[in-house]
Amino acid sequence: MYEPITIKDIAKALGLSTSTVSRALRGSHEISADTKKLVVEYAEQFNYRPNPIALSLKERRSRSIGVVVCEIANNYFSQAINGIESVAYNRGYHVIISQSHESYEREIVNVEHLASRSVDGLLVSLSAETDKIDHFKNLHDKGFPIVFFDRITDEIETHKVVADNYQGAYNATQHLIDAGYRKIAHLSSAAHLSISIERMNGYKAALADNKISFNESYIKNCNHGGMIYKELEDAVRSLINSKDKPTAIFSAGDKLTVSCLLALNKFKVKVPDDIALVGFSNSPLVELMNPSLTVVKQPAFEMGQKAIELLINLIESKRPVTEFEKVVLQTEIFERNSSIPKAKPKK
Amino acid sequence: MYEPITIKDIAKALGLSTSTVSRALRGSHEISADTKKLVVEYAEQFNYRPNPIALSLKERRSRSIGVVVCEIANNYFSQAINGIESVAYNRGYHVIISQSHESYEREIVNVEHLASRSVDGLLVSLSAETDKIDHFKNLHDKGFPIVFFDRITDEIETHKVVADNYQGAYNATQHLIDAGYRKIAHLSSAAHLSISIERMNGYKAALADNKISFNESYIKNCNHGGMIYKELEDAVRSLINSKDKPTAIFSAGDKLTVSCLLALNKFKVKVPDDIALVGFSNSPLVELMNPSLTVVKQPAFEMGQKAIELLINLIESKRPVTEFEKVVLQTEIFERNSSIPKAKPKK
DNA sequence: TTGTAAGCGTTATCAT
DNA sequence: ATGATAACGCTTACAA
Q1: Cβ contact, residue pair B266, A258, below 8 Å
Q2: Residues A268, A269, A275, CA angle at the centre, nearest 5°?
Q3: What digits encode the pLDDT tens for the residues B45-84?
Q4: What is the pTM of this model?
Q5: Structural domain spans, chain B
Q6: Closest CA–CA distance from residue B17 to any residue of chain A (Å)
Q7: In the complex, which nucleotide's C1' lies nearest to the CA atom of residue B8?
Q8: In CATH, what class is B1-48?
């Protein structure tokens, strides 16, 4: 069995009390240089490490934070997690990641598990299935620190970190309109998610500002994480087979964009010659995949960083916080070298 | 502040002792039905949850295991982690993931951090940079449970879970040879990694079995996670520009295969018409990406499951383990519908 | 059937 | 400068 050395062991070995050892290790001023040296060297030699669990119990905090996301196999989230980690590491926090796989039930279980005192706070991006948020509201009402990012909810008053989805979607749509396209389809994730609503609004606003009427049949929502490729393929098929088929697509998500590209490829529809495409994506691949693909990139890493900073502030603030920040970070649009060709004049 | 309810609170409120409450909550037989009911209902009402940290301290175990991988933004690893999670969840363990980003230093820090008693065991896949493994050896020698998977080391006697990389590579290479290709390049990750060595051996064996001489200049190793696209592009460029250029490529890794496909695409080299490609990949995309791409898929999910099962057995076994398993799971080869065309006759 | 007390590893508050 | 003790939340001998 693995039995690591404790302060007690050191005390016994050196004929000191545990308190003396503890103080020596923490470099207290009230310990003689000799004793300090003795203890520190012994600890060094036997590779003493304070037991973080005992510390957690004493300090009533675990110095770990929980991350609740739908999926880590997603460029946006893995980049956001990298941002989270980078800050956590420096501020002495562990990060515990849990995946909901877009399931409401699973999200609840994860949150319960994490929040029952094994983490000091939660960083949350809602699952696609989640439409009730009592499991967060209850915790938050009891004063448990929660920060939402990306897929947020308006029903809880706390810090939130989001990309400017409205503007990103507006720019993406405007980009297509500028290139002469007017029949622009919109692929998005579950309709009730904050990100979907904001992106839809940006899309609609760009259409409206250009006096293009909104066409309901151009909107395709895909809900489930696991089946996304199949769902997307169906959506794309129905778009390209429709009578008034779109000349361009705006896909509002990482997996959506990649899957759309794949589906189009499968159907032998060339991008951008047959149909133009602008999409949200954080994939390092998608930028390379199609040199004519204009991409809206979310500041995922920075969002993760900002979110955990706010969370740690929340956790470490002595007094209740009254003012909640909603941080909105700008998306970036990468217009590819060869850009999108002008739309062909209508026949 | 968030102050969850404790056994002490319940005891005080109900005029009982903490031990009675504790026993009632755990459904002990030596507690009267009345008391039990009283306690359980009170606990229910106030949403009592045992403090996992206190439990950890008492039981001298955290019921959490640490996962040390290079990168979660990798199809193989995210699938393996899903497998790990699926078992952990059922067996009552938390999973703490840490990424080395292929850095030796970072790996050491992560392991130190995790092992100093915040996890009960470690699931490890070595970073590409790691060539010394003292940080694991020290722990293992002290009896700390460690299971290696995927990128393993021979220097530590413990359970290991790997794919049959040799056979997978052999099959991939043979697949190309069967289609008539004889000039087969091999793209792989850091040369000293166990997976690279095994895959290389499989590749070499297939060549030898078919009386094809080994060509050193056909071997390209890529080391660093972060710069992999650039490295790959350079490797591919040098291959297609070499005087005795290969007619086929066997890429031995997920990112390698995708990046290779992208690089070839960028250089306007058509797969499989200009050059054939067979690659290891667990990407759900790559299968769709190029219908002529034959793919060797690792049983990532199952590997994760098996690895954590072994680890939990190790953790929960009362007596020292003397026999260590090396589990080898078979890879699957997916020959695409349109398959690889026969190589053109040499000019 | 229930209560008391010790212990898990650590630190803070008192002594001495 | 150092030691004894209590406390963090929980479980479990041991008493009652």
Answers
A1: no
A2: 175
A3: 998 999 999 999 999 999 999 999 999 988 899 999 999 9
A4: 0.90
A5: 1-48, 51-161+300-329, 165-297+333-339
A6: 21
A7: D9
A8: mainly alpha
